[in-house]
Design brief:
The complex is a heterotetramer of chains A (535), B (273), C (494) and D (315).
Chain B lengths: L4 H22 L32 H36 L4 H15 L2 H12 L3 H28 L2 H8 L4 H37 L11 H8 L8 H28 L1 H7 L1
Chain C lengths: L1 H22 L4 E6 L14 H7 L8 E3 L5 E3 L2 E6 L5 E6 L13 H12 L14 E8 L2 E6 L6 H4 L26 E7 L3 E6 L12 E6 L3 H9 L5 E3 L7 H5 L4 E16 L9 H10 L2 H9 L4 E2 L22 H10 L7 E6 L3 H16 L3 E6 L2 H10 L5 E6 L20 H12 L3 H17 L4 E13 L2 E2 L16 E2 L2
Parallel strand pairs in C: 1-10, 1-11, 14-15, 14-16
Antiparallel strand pairs in C: 2-3, 4-5, 5-7, 6-7, 8-9, 9-10, 11-17, 12-16, 12-17, 13-17, 18-19
Helix pairs in contact in C: 7-9, 8-10, 12-13
Chain D lengths: L1 H27 L5 H6 L5 H11 L5 H13 L13 H36 L4 H15 L2 H15 L15 H35 L2 H9 L3 H12 L1 H17 L2 H6 L5 H11 L2 H29 L8
Helix pairs in contact in D: 1-14, 5-6, 5-8, 5-11, 6-8, 7-8, 8-10, 8-11, 9-10, 11-14, 13-14
The chains are: A alpha/beta (535), B mainly alpha (273), C alpha+beta (494), D mainly alpha (315).
C-alpha cells in the first residue's frame, strides 16, 4: 500500500473548479514532481494535502495518507499530522518565517508542539537539525532573526522546520523559485539528500522542468486543475503523449531563430568606468559612514545593431546599471554616452533613443489609462509627436506587429494576460523607434510557453527593426538564445565578457563556471518535439 | 451582495442626511428664525414630528438645517486637508529622503504632536468662534493626515515600473505626479476623505458643543446638544434627537468609507473570491 | 459567581455613595457655585467669585452689606461724619485679630485704604477710593478719612469686597493664602475643584454654627444639576440653569430661594454708532423687544422686568416698563420715521452667560421681526472686554450690570455705551454731593426717568438670584446685594 | 538599537524646540489682554498698566519667550497671570487627575479591545464578528461627550451609583479616587476601545494572511495557537501606534469630558486659561501636552523595536 493515495480529488473555490479528478499515489522514499504553469492547480494540490485550503473551498474525493482519509479528519487530528507526519516547504523564504521570532524558536516550536519537549531540550535538538540542513551555529547563531539571514539560509531554516520530526511526507512548493541558481542547486541537493537519508516521500512542486528532470522519480504534468500526464521521469522524457506536455517541454528548451550578427565596432552606447555606491546605515551615530558599492568601475559598449546580454545573480548590480543607463539614477564616477552624448541629465533628444521593457507585466502600466495612451507615452520625448489619426494608425500597426489586435488599443490593461502585457510593453518601447532597447528581466516573470512566444517576438522584431538591445537576465538559457555577446556580472563588477556562445560553452572565469554548472539542465528532447514555440 | 452590505447601508444613511440638508434649502416644516416661546419644549407630536426646543423652534427643521452646517464644515475641512495635504505629500514623495521631504514630514509630525482638540479650541477661542474658524481649525489637522497618506502611497507607486517607464519617457516628476500618481491615489483619497469627513462632523459637533462652532442663529447639531444639556432631565428628546443625527451620519459615513475601501481595493476584492 | 461578584461591587459602590452624603450633615456644609476665583485677593481683581467665597466669611470691611442690602457696621463699630461731609472718623472694634493671630488696628485700615488708592494699585474698583485725600491714624482704634468733597455713598463704597481690611504682614501671600478677620479661616484650595474654610474660634462676633465649609466650583450647568440632584453638594448659590429649578421645587429634598440681585440685565447699545445714535431707532428697538418672552425663554420665568437701570427692590425704584411696551408695529413706524423703513444691520455681541446667549437669540429674532438684522457673535469675556467694553466696537450687546447702585455709569460719556448727556451728568454730580435722603431719592427717580426716556439701552430684566439648597439648610442669604455667600448665619435644621 | 534610540531622541528635541516657537507665536498674536480680563469693567487704565507691569507683560516678546523656555528647561513654567501661583504646581496637581484618567481609560480601552479584536479576527465573517464589528462602528460614531451625558443621567442621577462628577482626591484612599474617575474613563474609553478593536482585528486579519502563518499552520499549530503565538505579536505594530495616539488623545482630548464631569484636570485648566487669557498657562500646558505626545511616540518607537527585531538596526 502506498504512503499517499489521492483519489478523484475535486476542489471548488466558490463557483470555480480548481482541481478536477486529481488522482495519484506516492511510495515511501519516492519523489513526485508536480509541474505545470501558473494556475494549473499545483499549489492547490499541496494545500489540499495539508488540508490548509481556504475556508470557502469545497472538497470532493479522498486523500488517503497512511490509509486514513485526511478529508474526514477533524481539525484537531489534522494538527497532530501536520508538521509531524506531513510537512511543507514554501516558495518564498523571505516571508515564510515569522519576522519577530528567532530561528531557534521557530524550529523548536515544532518539537515542543508535537513531542512535548522542554524548551531547553527542543533548543538543543533544533540546533542539531539546523546543523544538519547546513546552518552550523558557528556560521549562523541560533539567536538570529530571519531578517539577518540570506534567502538561501532562510530556506534552509524553513526546511529545518519541515524535517525536524522526520515526516513521512514532505511537500516542497516551488522551494527554489525565489532563489539564485547557485543557491537553488544547494537547496535541491539538500532536499535530495534528506529524502535519501530518511526515506521520506517528497512531492516537489515546480514550474521548472529542468529542476524536475534531475530530482524526481515520477512526474505529473498539470494543466487547468487536471493531471494530464503522469509517468516515471525517464519514461516521460522519452515518450510523452499529451500535446500539452509536449508543448511545455518544447517551450522550456526553446531557442529562437536569431542568427549571430557580426557588427563593426561602431559604438552606440559606451559605458566608461562607472561606479555607484550606497551609504550604509551607521551602527552608532559617530561611526564613519560606510558605503556599499553597487557598481564598481564598469566599462562596456554596445555597437549599432548589437544584441548584448547581461547575466548575474540578484544583488550583482544589474538594476543599478540599468537605471544609470536610463538616466534615472545618478552615477558617481565615469560616463555613459549614447552616440557620443552623455545620458546623465540628458535632454529629450538623447533620451528618445533608449527605451526599456521591465520585468513585471502587472506593475508596468498605469491601470487607469487605456492601451492607446499607455503605448504612446514615449511620444512625450518627440518634438512633433504624431497625434489624432496618424498616431492612431501607428499604434494600430505597432499592436499588430507585436501580435495584438488594433482594437486592443481601447482596452484597459487589466483586460490582458501577462504575456499580452509584455507585448504591449514592447510596443511602448518601440513606438518612437529607439536606437537601444533595454530588456530588464523582461521574460523572467512569464510562464514557459508565454516566455517562448515573447522571445520569438523579440527575435522577430530584432530582425525587422534592426534593434540593438541590452538583454538583462539571470537565466543563461534565455541569454544564450537571444544575444550575440554577453557580460557576466558579479558584486558590481564585470567578470567575463565575450561572444555568448563562447562564454556559455567555454567559460573561463570561476564564477561563470559555477553559474553554468548550477543551472539545472533539461535532458535532450525526444524526437518530434520541435524547438519552436507552440503557437 | 453581502460584501457590499456596509456600502449599501452607509450610502443609504449618508444619502438621507444629504437629502435632508439639500432639501432644507427649498423647504423646511417651520421657519427656524421665528422663535415661539409659548410653544417651547413640546415632545414629538403631529404638528412637530420631533417636538420643539426651548425657544419653541421645530426640531425637525433645526436638524435639517443643522445637517447643512455639519456637512459644510466637515466638507470644507476635508477640502482644506486634501487641497494642501495631497500636493505636499506628492511633493515629499518625489524627493524621498531629501530636504524637502524631511521638512514636510517633520512639519507633519509636529502638527500631529499637537493635541488637536485643544488647538482647535485655542484657535476658535482666540480668533473668534464661528463656522469659518472651526473649518480652519479642523482643516489644519486634516493636512498632515492627507499628506502622510498620499506620500506613503505615492512612495510605493514611485517604485512601480510604470512610473519608471514614464520617467524613461522623459516626463518631469511634477507631470508624473499629476498624470500617474494622483489618479492612482483617488481610491485611497476617497476612502480617507470619507473617514476624515466623518471625523470632521464629530469635531464640529465637539466644537459647537463647547460653543465654538457655527454661531446662532445658524443651527448646528453640536450646539443643539449643548443647549439641550441642562434640559435632558425633563426633555430628553432635545438631546436624543441631535445625538442620533450625529451618530447616524457618522455611522453612515464610516460604513460607506469601509464599504468603499473594500469595493475599491482590488487586493481585498480578490481575496474575497 | 462572576455575576454575584459584580452585584457585590455595585452594591458597595452604591453604599459608599449613600454613606458619603449622609455624613455631610450637622456641622459642615458644601456650597457649590459656578465660577472659581482666579486667586484669593478681593482687593486686586474684578472677579466676583472671590467675594462669593471670601466676603464676610474671611474678609471684612469697615462697613458691610446686610442680607437686605442695608449698610451696617463691620470692623468699624461706629463712625462720625463731619458737618461738611468730608471727614469720616471710624471707631474700630477692639481686640479683633487676623487669622494669623496679629491684631487688627487703625494701622491696618490705613494700610488697606492707602494700598487701594496708591499709584501702582491693582484694585479693580479704584474709583471707590478716588475721593480720599488722606487716611490718618488717630489712635489704635480710630481712623480719620478725609475726602476731597462730600460723597453720599462713601459708607456704601467701604462695604464693597474691594475695600476689605487686609494686614501688611500677610499681604505677600494673600493671593493663595488669604488672611482676614472673618468668622472663617482659609484652610485649603484645590485649584479647579474646591476651597475649604474652617471656623475661626477667635472671631470677635457671634460664633457661626458651622465648623467648616467647602466651596466647590462647578461651571457646567449639567454637572451642577447632577451634583445637586445626587446631593453631592448641600447648597448651590447662583444656580446656573433656571430651566432645572422647577424640578428642584417639586422635590421635597430641596428648597429653592429666588432672591433679587443688583444685576440690571440690559441690551447695551452703542449710542455713538449710527444708526443707534438716533433716539428714534433706540426707541424702536425698545418697542420691538418682548421682555416677557426673554424672561420666559432665556430665564424660564425667573427675573423681574425693568424699564430703567435701577434695581426694582430699591425703595427709590420707578417702574418705567411702560415706556417700552412690546409693540412691533410702533417699532416699525418709528424706524420708518428715523429713515429706516427696511430696517438696518447691526452687531449683537454676546458674553458667555446663558442669559446673554439665550437672550441674544431671542432678541435677534424679535428684532428681525421689525426688520433689524442683528448679527450674533458669541464672545469670551476677555474678547468681550477687548472688543465691546474697551474697543466700543459693537452695535448691541447684552450684559448684566451687577454692581450695586451703578446708575452713575450713565454720567460717563467714555463708558462703553457712550451716552453723553450733560443734564444727566450734572444731576449725578449734584447727587454725590447730596446727603439728604429725600433729595437723593428725588434725584435718583429723575435720573431713572432720563435714561429711560432717552432709551439709552434696552432695559430687560433684573437678574434673579436663585439658590438651590438642601431643605434642611437655613440662614442663607436670599437676596444678593453684593456677590457674597455669607455663611455666618447658616446652620442645619435638625 | 542604541543608534535608533539616539536618532529618535534627537528628533524629539528638535520637535520640542519647534513646538515651543509655534505655541508661543500662536498664543501671543491672539487678541485679548489678561490684565484687562482680571480687572473687569470698572478698572481704570492706570490700574491695568500697573498690573501689566506686575505680570511682566510690558516686556518684549523675545525676552518673554526666552524667559519662558529657559524656565521650562529648569522645570519652572512660571507664574500664572490670573491665579498668581506657580504653574508647575498647578500642572503637577492636575496631572494627578489627567494622568490617572488617561491611564485608566487606556487600560479600559485596551482591556476591552484586545479580547474583542481577537474574538472578531478569529471568527472572521461569522455572525459574532459581524455583530461585534457593528457595535464598534456605533461606538466610533458616538460623540464621547454625548455618551458622557448619558452616563451621568443614568448612573449618577437615576441610579446614583457614582457621583455626577468632581474629583474626590486621592487622600481618601485609592478606591474613592478611582471611583470618581470611573464614569469619565468609561466615556473616554468606549469610543477608543471601538477604534482599537477594529485596528486589532484588521491587523490580525492582515497578519493571518502572511506566509509565515501558513508555515506555522503547516507545523501543526491550530488556528487559535497561530493567532496567539504568531499573529498577535506581529499585529502589535499598528496596535501600538493606535495606543500611542490614544494616549495623547486621552491626555488632551479629555478636555470636553473633564468639562462634563467637572474634573479639575489639565484639559479643564487649559480651557479655563484660554477663556481667561491666562496665556502663559495656555502655552505651558500645550507645551507639556506636546511633550507628552512626542515622548509617548518616542516610547512607542522603542516599543516597535522591542516587538520587531527588524527595526533594531534599521535607519
Amino acid at each position: 500500500m502506498s504512503l499517499l493515495y489521492v483519489d478523484q480529488l475535486n476542489i471548488k473555490l466558490g463557483p470555480v473548479s480548481v482541481l478536477k479528478d486529481v488522482s495519484f499515489s506516492l511510495q515511501q522514499g519516492e519523489i513526485l514532481a508536480l509541474t505545470g504553469e501558473s494556475g494549473s492547480g499545483k499549489s492547490m494540490t499541496a494545500l489540499a494535502l495539508m488540508q490548509l485550503l481556504p475556508d470557502i473551498a469545497k472538497t470532493d474525493g479522498r486523500i488517503l495518507f497512511q490509509r486514513e482519509d485526511l478529508t474526514t479528519k477533524t481539525e484537531k487530528e489534522l494538527c497532530k499530522i501536520r508538521g509531524s507526519d506531513i510537512s511543507m516547504v514554501f516558495q518564498e523564504p523571505m516571508t515564510a518565517l515569522n519576522p519577530v521570532k528567532t530561528i531557534s524558536a521557530q524550529v523548536s516550536e515544532t518539537l515542543i508542539l508535537h513531542k512535548g519537549e522542554t524548551p531547553r531540550a527542543a533548543r538543543e535538538k533544533a540546533q542539531s537539525i539546523l546543523h544538519k540542513v547546513g546552518l552550523p551555529p558557528s556560521v549562523v547563531p541560533m539567536g538570529r532573526f530571519p531578517h539577518e539571514l540570506s534567502g538561501g539560509q532562510r530556506q534552509r531554516v524553513v526546511i529545518a522546520i519541515a524535517v525536524a520530526l522526520t515526516p513521512s511526507l514532505l511537500i516542497a512548493d516551488e522551494p527554489t523559485t525565489a532563489l539564485d541558481v547557485t543557491t537553488q542547486a544547494q537547496i535541491l541537493a539538500l532536499l535530495k539528500s534528506l529524502v535519501k537519508e530518511t526515506n521520506m516521500a517528497m512531492i516537489l512542486i515546480t514550474h521548472d522542468l529542468a529542476v524536475v528532470a534531475n530530482m524526481a522519480d515520477n512526474i505529473a504534468i498539470m494543466q487547468h486543475g487536471k493531471i494530464v500526464e503522469m509517468a516515471p521521469t525517464q519514461t516521460l522524457f522519452s515518450q510523452m503523449h499529451h500535446p500539452y506536455t509536449k508543448s511545455l517541454f518544447a517551450a522550456s528548451g526553446h531557442t529562437v531563430n536569431l542568427p549571430y550578427k557580426a557588427v563593426n565596432a561602431d559604438n552606440l552606447l559606451k559605458v566608461t568606468h562607472i561606479s555607484r555606491q550606497y551609504r550604509l546605515p551607521r551602527k552608532h551615530p559617530f561611526e564613519a559612514t560606510k558605503y556599499a558599492r553597487a557598481v564598481s568601475d564598469v566599462s562596456f559598449s554596445i555597437d549599432h545593431g548589437e544584441r548584448l546580454g547581461l547575466v548575474g545573480e540578484s544583488g550583482c548590480g544589474k538594476s543599478t546599471l540599468t537605471r544609470a543607463i536610463l538616466g534615472l539614477d545618478p552615477i558617481e564616477k565615469g560616463t555613459i554616452t549614447l552616440n557620443g552624448r552623455d545620458v546623465q541629465n540628458a535632454k529629450a533628444d538623447v533620451r528618445r533613443d533608449i527605451q526599456v521593457v521591465f520585468q513585471d507585466p502587472y506593475g508596468s502600466f498605469n491601470p487607469r489609462h487605456k492601451v492607446s495612451r499607455l503605448v504612446c507615452e514615449p511620444y512625450h520625448l518627440l518634438p512633433n509627436a504624431p497625434s489624432g489619426r496618424v498616431a492612431d494608425d501607428k499604434i494600430s500597426r505597432l499592436l499588430e506587429d507585436v501580435g495584438l489586435s488594433s482594437t486592443d488599443k481601447d482596452k484597459y490593461i487589466h483586460e490582458f494576460s501577462g504575456g499580452q502585457r509584455q507585448r504591449i510593453a514592447i510596443a511602448r518601447a518601440l513606438i518612437i523607434r529607439p536606437k537601444l532597447v533595454i530588456f530588464d528581466e523582461a521574460v523572467s516573470a512569464l510562464d514557459v510557453t508565454v516566455r517562448a512566444q515573447i522571445l520569438d517576438l523579440i527575435a522577430k522584431l530584432a530582425a525587422e527593426y534592426g534593434l540593438s538591445y541590452l538583454f538583462i537576465s539571470h537565466d543563461l538559457a534565455v541569454v544564450r538564445s537571444v544575444t550575440d555577446r554577453c557580460l557576466v556580472m558579479r558584486d558590481g563588477q564585470i567578470v567575463e565578457t565575450g561572444r555568448t556562445k563562447d562564454i556559455l560553452d567555454n567559460p573561463t572565469h570561476d564564477y561563470t563556471k559555477k553559474l553554468i554548472n548550477a543551472a539545472p539542465k533539461l535532458p535532450a528532447l525526444p524526437k518530434g518535439i520541435t524547438a519552436h514555440a507552440p503557437s | 451582495m453581502r460584501q457590499y452590505r456596509s456600502l449599501i447601508i452607509g450610502t443609504f444613511l449618508s444619502l438621507i442626511v444629504l437629502i435632508a440638508a439639500t432639501f432644507s434649502f427649498v423647504w423646511i416644516p417651520y421657519d427656524i428664525m421665528q422663535l415661539s416661546i409659548p410653544d417651547k419644549l413640546q415632545t414629538p407630536n403631529w404638528d412637530h414630528f420631533l417636538g420643539t426646543d426651548h425657544f419653541g423652534r421645530d426640531i425637525l427643521s433645526m436638524i435639517m438645517v443643522g445637517a447643512r452646517t455639519s456637512l459644510a464644515v466637515a466638507l470644507l475641512a476635508v477640502g482644506i486637508g486634501m487641497g494642501i495635504g495631497v500636493p505636499l505629500g506628492l511633493a515629499a514623495a518625489t524627493r524621498r529622503g531629501a530636504f524637502l521631504d524631511e521638512v514636510i514630514m517633520r512639519t507633519n509630525d509636529l502638527i500631529f504632536a499637537f493635541p488637536s482638540l485643544v488647538i482647535a479650541i485655542l484657535i476658535t477661542a482666540l480668533f473668534g468662534a464661528g463656522a469659518m474658524n472651526a473649518i480652519i481649525a479642523i482643516g489644519i489637522f486634516n493636512i498632515p493626515v492627507f499628506a502622510r497618506v498620499s506620500r506613503g502611497a505615492a512612495l510605493s507607486l514611485w517604485q512601480k515600473e510604470f512610473i519608471l517607464a514614464a520617467r524613461v519617457s522623459g516626463k518631469s516628476k511634477l507631470r508624473i505626479s499629476v498624470e500617474h500618481i494622483l489618479p492612482n491615489l483617488t481610491n485611497l483619497l476617497i476612502v480617507q476623505g470619507t473617514i476624515q469627513f466623518s471625523l470632521g462632523i464629530l469635531a464640529e459637533a465637539g466644537l459647537s458643543y463647547v460653543g465654538l462652532g457655527a454661531q446662532p442663529p445658524t443651527p448646528s447639531w453640536g450646539r443643539m446638544l449643548a443647549d439641550a444639556q441642562t434640559m435632558v432631565s425633563f426633555a430628553p428628546h432635545l438631546a436624543l434627537i441631535p445625538g442620533s443625527a450625529i451618530i447616524l451620519t457618522v455611522l453612515g459615513l464610516n460604513l460607506m468609507g469601509d464599504g468603499l475601501r473594500d469595493a475599491l481595493d482590488p487586493k481585498l476584492r480578490k481575496s474575497r473570491q | 459567581m462572576i455575576k454575584s461578584k459584580k452585584y457585590i461591587a455595585a452594591t458597595a459602590i452604591a453604599l459608599t455613595a449613600v454613606a458619603s452624603t449622609s455624613f455631610a450633615a450637622s456641622s459642615d456644609i458644601t456650597v457649590a457655585m459656578q465660577l472659581e476665583p482666579p486667586h484669593l485677593d478681593p482687593t486686586s481683581a474684578a472677579a466676583g467669585a472671590i467675594d462669593s467665597v471670601l466676603y464676610s466669611n474671611v474678609f471684612e470691611g469697615l462697613t458691610r452689606f446686610a442680607s437686605d442690602g442695608a449698610i451696617i457696621a463691620g470692623l468699624a463699630k461706629s463712625w462720625d461724619i463731619s458737618a461738611e461731609g468730608t471727614e469720616y472718623t471710624f471707631h474700630l472694634r477692639a481686640g479683633v485679630q487676623f487669622h494669623d493671630g496679629t491684631g487688627m488696628d487703625a494701622e491696618d485700615v490705613k494700610f488697606s485704604l492707602d494700598r487701594a488708592r496708591s499709584e501702582d494699585s491693582t484694585n479693580a474698583q479704584k474709583a471707590l477710593f478716588s475721593g480720599i485725600t488722606d487716611v490718618a491714624v488717630v489712635d489704635s482704634t480710630t481712623v480719620k478719612v478725609t475726602l476731597d468733597k462730600p460723597n453720599g455713598s462713601f459708607l456704601f463704597n467701604m462695604a464693597w469686597g474691594d475695600a476689605v481690611i487686609v494686614a501688611p504682614e500677610s499681604i505677600e501671600g494673600i493671593k493663595n493664602n488669604p488672611v482676614g478677620t472673618g468668622a472663617f479661616k482659609f484652610q485649603n484650595w484645590v485649584q479647579g475643584d474646591r476651597i475649604e474654610l474652617a471656623r475661626n474660634d477667635n472671631y470677635w462676633g457671634s460664633a457661626p454654627a458651622l465648623e467648616s465649609a467647602t466651596f466647590k466650583f462647578i461651571s457646567d450647568p449639567t454637572a451642577a444639576f447632577a451634583a445637586v440632584m445626587a446631593q453631592d453638594v448641600d447648597v448651590f448659590t447662583g444656580f446656573p440653569a433656571p430651566e432645572n429649578l422647577p424640578q428642584f421645587e417639586a422635590d421635597a429634598r430641596f428648597q429653592v430661594l429666588e432672591g433679587s440681585t443688583e444685576g440690571e440685565t440690559i441690551l447695551s447699545t452703542n449710542n455713538k454708532m449710527p444708526p443707534l445714535d438716533n433716539v428714534k431707532v433706540r426707541k424702536a428697538i425698545a418697542h420691538a423687544i418682548d421682555r416677557q418672552a426673554i424672561i420666559d425663554g432665556a430665564m424660564f420665568g425667573y427675573g423681574t422686568p425693568i424699564g430703567t437701570h435701577f434695581a426694582p427692590h430699591h425703595p427709590d425704584y420707578v417702574d418705567l416698563t411702560g415706556n417700552s411696551q412690546h409693540d412691533p408695529e410702533l417699532a416699525k413706524k418709528l424706524l420708518a420715521q428715523a429713515g429706516f423703513p427696511n430696517g438696518f444691520e447691526t452687531t449683537l455681541k454676546l458674553p458667555p452667560p446663558s442669559y446673554a446667549r439665550r437672550g441674544g437669540e431671542i432678541i435677534a429674532s424679535q428684532l428681525r421681526a421689525v426688520g433689524i438684522r442683528a448679527k450674533i457673535s458669541n464672545l469670551e469675556w476677555a474678547q468681550w472686554l477687548e472688543q465691546v467694553f474697551r474697543g466700543k466696537d459693537y452695535g448691541l450687546s447684552i450684559v448684566s450690570h451687577t454692581e450695586p447702585m451703578d446708575i452713575g455709569i450713565y454720567a460717563r460719556p467714555e463708558y462703553y455705551f457712550q451716552y453723553d448727556n450733560p443734564e444727566f451728568q450734572a444731576l449725578m454730580t449734584d447727587l454725590s454731593a447730596t446727603t439728604d435722603t429725600a433729595m437723593r431719592s428725588e434725584m435718583l427717580k429723575k435720573a431713572q426717568n432720563i435714561i429711560s426716556e432717552d432709551y439709552v439701552n434696552g432695559y430687560l430684566f433684573e437678574l434673579a438670584f436663585t439658590t438651590v439648597a438642601d431643605a434642611k439648610v437655613q440662614g442663607l442669604w436670599k437676596n444678593s446685594p453684593t456677590q457674597a455667600t455669607d455663611l455666618t448665619g447658616v446652620s442645619w435644621l435638625d | 538599537m542604541l543608534q535608533y534610540a539616539f536618532k529618535r531622541a534627537l528628533s524629539l528635541c528638535l520637535s520640542l524646540c519647534l513646538a515651543s516657537v509655534v505655541i508661543f507665536a500662536v498664543v501671543e498674536i491672539a487678541p485679548g489682554d489678561p490684565a484687562s480680563f482680571m480687572l473687569g469693567i470698572n478698572a481704570q487704565p492706570d490700574t491695568i498698566a500697573a498690573l501689566r507691569a506686575e505680570l511682566g507683560l510690558d516686556q518684549g516678546k523675545f525676552v518673554r519667550y526666552l524667559e519662558w523656555t529657559g524656565g521650562m528647561l529648569r522645570g519652572d513654567f512660571g507664574t500664572s497671570y490670573t491665579y498668581r501661583s506657580s504653574i508647575t504646581d498647578m500642572i503637577a496637581e492636575r496631572m494627578w487627575i489627567s494622568l490617572p484618567l488617561a491611564l485608566y481609560a487606556l487600560a479600559l480601552s485596551t482591556l476591552i479591545a484586545f479580547p474583542v479584536g481577537l474574538y472578531a479576527a478569529s471568527t472572521r465573517g461569522a455572525p459574532g464578528d459581524v455583530a461585534v464589528m457593528g457595535v464598534t462602528q456605533l461606538g466610533i460614531a458616538i460623540p464621547n461627550f454625548w455618551f458622557a451625558m448619558l452616563l451621568v443621567m443614568i448612573f449618577a442621577i437615576k441610579l446614583r451609583w457614582f457621583s455626577a462628577g468632581g474629583f474626590a482626591g486621592w487622600d481618601d484612599g485609592l478606591f474613592i479616587g478611582v471611583k470618581s474617575l470611573t464614569l469619565p474613563a468609561i466615556a473616554l474609553a468606549l469610543p477608543q476601545a471601538s477604534i482599537l478593536s477594529r485596528v486589532m482585528r484588521s491587523a490580525l486579519i492582515e497578519t493571518l494572511s502572511e506566509d509565515y502563518i501558513r508555515t506555522a499552520r503547516a507545523k501543526g499549530l491550530s488556528r487559535q495557537a497561530v493567532l496567539w503565538r504568531h499573529a498577535l505579536r506581529n499585529a502589535m505594530i499598528p496596535v501600538l501606534t493606535i495606543i500611542g495616539l490614544q494616549f495623547s488623545f486621552l491626555m488632551a482630548g479629555a478636555i470636553i469630558i473633564e468639562q462634563v464631569f467637572f474634573l479639575p484636570g489639565l484639559g479643564r485648566l487649559v480651557f479655563q486659561a484660554i477663556t481667561q487669557r491666562d496665556l502663559i498657562v495656555v502655552e505651558s500646558v500645550v507645551m507639556l501636552l506636546v511633550f507628552a505626545v512626542i515622548s509617548v511616540n518616542f516610547i512607542i518607537d522603542l516599543a516597535y523595536a522591542a516587538v520587531d527585531p527588524r527595526l533594531r538596526h534599521g535607519p
